[in-house]
């Protein structure tokens, strides 16, 4: 597992993905990816991923009603909503504000909203996780972020925004794929795939150790565990799941 072998295999993979690199060089790939490819891919991936993590998500979100505000309302902000795979786990009457940096998920998002009419949808904001200025400070009871911190520009900046928008005592739920153990073959292949994977899949980074960012953030309580979610023919398997309280 030497650096030269990683570089050689990266070059081989880049050769196989040469059409994408060429389209990227011409400025065509990014708009095509954001508007057509990634929304389509993410909806298909979400369907597979949801089958594998449904029980874990049910367990994760089971205490969500405990974080209602004193008025009895539960205001929830979801970062990187995508096509809305988490809506089914939210309690009835929950008021949801959806955000995503990519505004091209409308079809999948509308389908998910129609299936989950027990939730009140407040608004959709086009916003990056690192810049939620449209959301007032201390204004939400819960923030949810699943399979998003892998692709934000700044993980720590996103966590600072989470802490800002949460009211004192509010909760942040997360489920993210992360780097494998550095001594493992899986980490080796994550390193090999990293540049091409990031280009093809809208900035998704395979080797982030996101649990470290969460441990260093200023949450008063952190409940985090490492788990495994096998997605065939992908370098994604190690995940972290849990919640943190402001």
UniProtKB/TrEMBL annotation:
Sections of the chain in a coiled coil: none
Ranges that cross the membrane: 7-29
InterPro entries: Methyltransf_11, SAM-dependent_MTases_sf, Thiol_S-MT
Pfam family, any one: Methyltransf_11
Keywords: Membrane, Transmembrane, Transmembrane helix
Signal sequence, start to end: none
Domain Methyltransferase type, first and last residues per copy: 77-174
GO molecular-function term, one example from the UniProt record: S-adenosylmethionine-dependent methyltransferase activity
Protein name as annotated: MET7A protein
Organism: Rynchops niger
């Amino acid at each position: 597992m030497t650096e030269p072998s990683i570089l050689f295999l990266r070059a081989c993979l880049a050769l196989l993905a040469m059409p994408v690199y060429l389209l990227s060089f011409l400025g065509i790939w990014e708009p095509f990816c954001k508007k057509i490819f990634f929304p389509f891919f993410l909806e298909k991936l979400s369907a597979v991923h949801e089958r594998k993590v449904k029980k874990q998500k049910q367990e994760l979100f089971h205490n969500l009603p405990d974080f209602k505000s004193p008025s009895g309302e539960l205001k929830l902000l979801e970062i990187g909503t995508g096509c809305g795979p988490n809506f089914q786990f939210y309690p009835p009457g929950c008021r949801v504000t959806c955000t995503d940096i990519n505004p091209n998920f409308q079809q999948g998002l509308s389908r998910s909203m129609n299936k989950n009419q027990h939730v009140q949808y407040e608004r959709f904001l086009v916003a990056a996780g690192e810049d939620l200025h449209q959301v007032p400070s201390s204004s939400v009871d819960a923030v949810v972020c699943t399979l998003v911190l892998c692709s934000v520009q700044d993980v720590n900046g996103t966590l600072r925004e989470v802490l800002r928008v949460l009211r004192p005592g509010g909760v942040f739920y997360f489920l993210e794929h992360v780097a494998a153990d550095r001594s493992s073959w899986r980490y080796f292949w994550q390193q090999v795939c990293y540049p091409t994977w990031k280009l093809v899949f809208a900035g998704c980074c395979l080797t982030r150790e996101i649990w470290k960012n969460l441990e260093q953030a200023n949450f008063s309580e952190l409940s985090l565990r490492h788990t495994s979610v096998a997605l065939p023919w992908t370098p994604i398997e190690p995940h972290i799941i849990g919640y943190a309280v402001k």
